[in-house]
Amino acid sequence: MTKPFTTLSTHIAWSCPWYDIRQDEILRPDGSPGVYNIVQKAPSVWIVPVMTSGNIVLLRQYRYTVDDWCWEVPAGGVKEAQTPKEAAREELHEEVGGHSTNWTSIGPLYTANGICNEVGHIFLAREVELGQAAHEPAEIIEIHQKSIAEVLTMARTNQIKDASSALAILLCQPYL
């Protein structure tokens, strides 16, 4: 299948440690010129952690961007030379002090494909044991354990407003 857009030039318009804004001059499918701005972001991981008790570990995290406390699953970026599974193990440990030897990859998805090229990898971690978390200075996080039924209800009734977390939970449902 042919690509409907032609890229004429590309450059980084803005950059920070977490993402870049790439600006492309393009020809649209009708031949008219245009500019497309793309948030370039490294891949990320979302982990649905299930304890041996059957409870799911959720985070209640303050997010400055939306000025709200949000229910989420552990998540984070994949570092250079790191596999998504390695990143998932690291994020589970950092955010909840969690360890697991029972991992299932649910698969990749695009997190915001209208503006961003980020690929999110969803993992289910079973038989999770909790230890000491290692939060970053800007992370304001509470760690909670909730039943599978309660977490599924939270995802379905918009109590979990973080879209990637809600989707990760719902995609893991057949394995819970």
**Largest beta sheet: what is the strand line-up?**
7-4-9-8
* Major sheet description: 4 strands, mixed
Give the count of helical stretches.
3
Write down the overall mean pLDDT: 96
Low-pLDDT stretches: none
Q: How would you sum up the global shape?
A: elongated
Instruction: Estimate the helix proportion, in percent.
Output: 10-25%
How far apart lie the N and C ends?
A: 38 Å
- Write down how many β-strands occur, each being a DSSP E stretch of 2 or more residues: 10
Radius of gyration: 18 Å
Q: What class do helices, strands and sheet pairing give?
A: alpha+beta
Helix/strand order, N-terminal first: EEEEEEEHEEEHH
Please summarize what this structure is:
The protein is of the alpha+beta class and 176 residues long. The protein contains 3 helices and 10 strands, in the order βββββββαβββαα. Helices cover 18% and strands 43% of the residues.
